[in-house]
């Protein structure tokens, strides 16, 4: 079942049940506490908090999401992309827990002939919030799930709130048992690789107070209008339905891996480290494509920095696969072709998108060419003297002279088994910044001419993905 087909089934199922189909919002978060939309519900937050009146009481969407907080997982787990699509169904003061569970169960286990996904009911496990006896009972009654396949979990995993006064409530997560060859028995609390989380149902039931901690805060009372917010990972369902091993091997992503094989002459499946690199390439190229499509341009801070980092990591992963010529002119069109069935705007806008991406690769190639030899010889020196730490002034020189951002130096040093003296690096950066400030002041007051201070602050402040809705709770 192609990814676009799962998406179509989703929208049909929920629109047949009175949900208004709302197109995906842009990846740029409307909420200033996050850079990107990290979940399907983000565009609907004003309706959940009661700040705005929703134009409909039921809605459904397939929302583009970017979670940079998952970047280190990419290619290593089976299930984390920096870009992914979240299918959601939402109720604003309309149906609640029982219907949400019924819809989820019916869609997952309904036969393929009748528009469902056709999962065998015996492979489904769920978790509920530890005190949510109602959800526990509903999974038994509505879905007929045996109690052994319903596991209770604490606040950290199964409770949602924004972290401030407002709606809050328990969640219930739905997992598919991939089978004994993928891990140990015992349900999702024992093994999240074997038991793959595909869907999170959030029951916004209470109003919480400000303050408290992640695990403990005051509940002010029941919400007058209770909401449902759910999120199903489209790529995760696709990888299960397509019978492949992970989300990077689905129809919308794998063609880039295939192209990386052709470019590098290496075979996917031969070597673990190379496989991870190819998955990283496929993920990052797709994320960059979608980010540029939504109007983001490479920059030294904020969203643009995230884009820059994704493109650079993809290019570097290709270098580690042995490819030194430009790679995006081959990889990006492949990713676009794999995604355009769901996002036709990619085709129409591709001249602009590709120009931005290729320009960034060119600039980065120049940076790499000049800095890599320097880094390598510095690393060799440290190693030959039996050390494990690259000095801060080396990292500083790489930054200052060759434009290597610190996280590039960190990553490249780590690949060769070295750590970097980051503290010393940061001290040097601060000193430089103070010098630049003093110089600028002197200049303004008519003093000596100085070198211009250029955006060092942005490099200093490590790029932050504000976790907002994910750091302490399990949002859909
Ligand atoms: P996990 O525990 O696997 O990291 P999560 O609990 O962080 O997932 P939620 O915040 O509950 O995920 O998001 C709802 C759904 O979105 C998940 O059930 C999953 O199917 C999907 N999803 C979440 N993060 C990713 C990701 N990085 N890549 C692909 N799909 C994702
Ligand atoms: Mg997660
Ligand atoms: Mg989870
Ligand atoms: Mg979850």
UniProtKB/TrEMBL annotation:
Kindly state what the record says about how the cofactor is bound: Binds 1 zinc ion per subunit.
The name on file for this protein is Alanine--tRNA ligase
Q: What domain of life does the native source organism fall in?
A: Bacteria
Q: Name one GO molecular function term.
A: zinc ion binding
Enumerate the catalysed reactions: tRNA(Ala) + L-alanine + ATP = L-alanyl-tRNA(Ala) + AMP + diphosphate
Q: What is the lineage of its organism?
A: Bacteria, Bacillati, Actinomycetota, Actinomycetes, Micrococcales
Q: What is its EC number?
A: 6.1.1.7
Give the originating organism. Answer: Occultella aeris
- Subcellular location as annotated: Cytoplasm
The family note in this entry says: Belongs to the class-II aminoacyl-tRNA synthetase family.
The task this protein performs is described as: Catalyzes the attachment of alanine to tRNA(Ala) in a two-step reaction: alanine is first activated by ATP to form Ala-AMP and then transferred to the acceptor end of tRNA(Ala). Also edits incorrectly charged Ser-tRNA(Ala) and Gly-tRNA(Ala) via its editing domain.
Q: What keywords is this UniProt entry annotated with?
A: Aminoacyl-tRNA synthetase, ATP-binding, Cytoplasm, Ligase, Metal-binding, Nucleotide-binding, Protein biosynthesis, RNA-binding, tRNA-binding, Zinc
Any GO CC annotation of this UniProt entry: cytosol
Domain comment from the record reads as follows: Consists of three domains; the N-terminal catalytic domain, the editing domain and the C-terminal C-Ala domain. The editing domain removes incorrectly charged amino acids, while the C-Ala domain, along with tRNA(Ala), serves as a bridge to cooperatively bring together the editing and aminoacylation centers thus stimulating deacylation of misacylated tRNAs.
- Domain (Alanyl-transfer RNA synthetases family profile) spans 1-476
Q: Which residues of the full protein are shown?
A: 1 to 476 of 892
Cofactor(s) needed for function? Zn(2+)
Q: What is its main location?
A: cytoplasm
Could you state one GO biological process linked to this protein? alanyl-tRNA aminoacylation
